[in-house]
C-alpha cells in the first residue's frame, strides 16, 4: 500500500525586526509511492508560496474543491507565537487534504 506523509514543522521568522520580516516553514515529505523518485524531501516555504500553490490547484482542479488556507490576518488578537502556530496547523491541514 502506498503511503505519503507530509509535515509542516519548524516555523522560523526571517529578517526579524525589519519591515520585510516573514515566517517560513519546513515542509517534510516521506513516501513509498512509485510516482516519486525521491522518497524523502525537505524544503522551506513561506505562506505566499502556499497561496501560489492553491491558485495553481484551483486553475487545474475543475469541479474538485481545493481546500482553504488559514487566513492572512494582520489583526490577529493574541501573541505572534500563537498566530504562527495556528497558521502552521492550518497549512498542515491544507497539505493533508
From TrEMBL:
Membership in a protein family: Belongs to the sorting nexin family.
Among Pfam families, the record links this protein to: PX (PF00787)
SUPFAM superfamilies of this UniProt entry? PX domain
One of the record's GO cellular component terms: endosome
Keyword set for this entry? Answer: Cytoplasm, Endosome, Lipid-binding, Membrane, Protein transport, Transport
Query: Which InterPro entries does this entry report, sorted A to Z?
Result: PX_dom, PX_dom_sf, SNX10/11
Give the molecular function GO annotations.
phosphatidylinositol phosphate binding
Record-level GO BP terms: intracellular protein transport; vesicle organization
Q: Which residues form the PX domain?
A: 3-97
The protein in question is named SNX11 protein
Residue ranges of the TM segments: none
Query: Where would you find this protein in the cell?
Result: Cytoplasm; Endomembrane system; Endosome
Its membrane topology is listed as: Peripheral membrane protein
Q: What is its main location?
A: cytoplasm
Amino acid at each position: 500500500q502506498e503511503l505519503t506523509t507530509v509535515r509542516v514543522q519548524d516555523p522560523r521568522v526571517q529578517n526579524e525586526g525589519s519591515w520585510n520580516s516573514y515566517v517560513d516553514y519546513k515542509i517534510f515529505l516521506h513516501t513509498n509511492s512509485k510516482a516519486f523518485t525521491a522518497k524523502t524531501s525537505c524544503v522551506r516555504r513561506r505562506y505566499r508560496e502556499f497561496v501560489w500553490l492553491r491558485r495553481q490547484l484551483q486553475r487545474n482542479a475543475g469541479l474538485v474543491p481545493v481546500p482553504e488556507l488559514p487566513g492572512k490576518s494582520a489583526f490577529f488578537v493574541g501573541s505572534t507565537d500563537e498566530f504562527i502556530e495556528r497558521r502552521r496547523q492550518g497549512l498542515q491541514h491544507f497539505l493533508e487534504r
